[in-house]
């Protein structure tokens, strides 16, 4: 965790640099995506010494967003007709991460993306963005990329793949991307809510029945996440694993 600038999305390098840190330090993930391998890897933060307030400011903000995340998870549970704390147990050893994104101006913005099209793998993402703009969501009805206009003092909430599966598609995770421009740099701060690595993600039992059978096979969150991360720093020949790979037809 810390600074890096060579992340790939959909096998193309993004036009961005980032600083990542965990809200729970240390956090734990499987060492490899292989199902037979039960080795666990410890992740921890690396903070720079300067600027001196950086660490505390980041942690204070992250703690507040974490509270908001739990509030949203509770409201989502209620909206599905479930007890408000129904999802909380999945986050006991969460691997939630905060990212500071910097998208530098790009001389050829028509040739690059700040962040390629993707869906967030976790439960929820809470994004603060500045006034530059660039985040777009794909509208399903006609495949048009719709800008998510920056609104002062507002946060953008993305539903991730995990909630799509838990809710058996009552909620859907949206595909999104970030375009860049040639004049202004852009900053954004997503907080990604990831469940504990050992959680088996599957449609919640209370929501499935004969008329609404489960649309997904259970999968281990940590293994799925680590398999997805395999393509983060190198180009693969094929599209990496997606929740659609667990879909029951
Ligand atoms: C992400 C993301 C949006 C943004 O990092 O997954 O979607 O506005 N970021 O930077
Ligand atoms: Ni995203």
TrEMBL record:
> Tell me, what is one Gene Ontology molecular-function annotation carried by this entry?
oxidoreductase activity
Q: Which intervals hold domain Fe2OG dioxygenase?
A: 94-195
Listed PROSITE patterns: FE2OG_OXY (PS51471)
Q: What is this protein called?
A: Fe2OG dioxygenase domain-containing protein
Q: Which UniProt keywords apply?
A: Iron, Metal-binding, Oxidoreductase
SUPFAM superfamilies xrefs: Clavaminate synthase-like (SSF51197)
Q: Would you say which domain of life the source belongs to?
A: Eukaryota
Q: Which InterPro entries match?
A: IPNS-like_FE2OG_OXY, IPNS-like_sf, Oxoglu/Fe-dep_dioxygenase_dom, Plant_2OG-oxidoreductases
User: Which Gene3D superfamilies does the record cross-reference, listed alphabetically?
Assistant: B-lactam Antibiotic, Isopenicillin N Synthase, Chain
Q: Which family is this sequence assigned to?
A: Belongs to the iron/ascorbate-dependent oxidoreductase family.
């Amino acid at each position: 965790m810390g600074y890096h600038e060579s992340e790939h999305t959909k096998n193309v390098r993004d036009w961005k640099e980032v600083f990542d840190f965990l809200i729970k330090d240390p956090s734990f993930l499987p060492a490899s995506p292989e199902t037979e391998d039960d080795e666990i890897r410890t992740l921890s933060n690396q903070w720079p010494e300067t600027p001196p307030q950086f660490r505390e400011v980041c942690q204070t903000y992250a703690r507040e967003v974490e509270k908001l995340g739990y509030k949203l998870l509770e409201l989502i549970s209620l909206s599905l007709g479930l007890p408000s704390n129904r999802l909380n147990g999945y986050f006991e050893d969460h691997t939630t991460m905060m990212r500071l994104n910097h998208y530098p101006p790009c001389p050829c913005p028509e040739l690059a993306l700040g962040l390629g099209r993707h869906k967030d793998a976790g439960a929820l993402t809470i994004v603060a963005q500045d006034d530059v703009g660039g985040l777009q969501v794909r509208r399903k009805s006609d495949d048009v990329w719709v800008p998510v206009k920056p609104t002062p003092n507002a946060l953008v909430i993305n539903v991730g793949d995990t909630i799509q599966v838990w809710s058996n598609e009552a909620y859907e995770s949206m595909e999104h991307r970030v375009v860049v421009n040639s004049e202004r740099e852009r900053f954004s701060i997503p907080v990604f809510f990831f469940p504990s690595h050992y959680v088996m993600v599957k449609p919640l039992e209370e929501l499935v029945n004969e008329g609404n059978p489960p649309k997904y096979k259970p999968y281990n969150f940590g293994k799925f996440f680590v398999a997805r991360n395999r393509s983060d720093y190198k180009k693969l020949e094929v599209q990496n694993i997606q929740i659609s790979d667990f879909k029951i037809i």
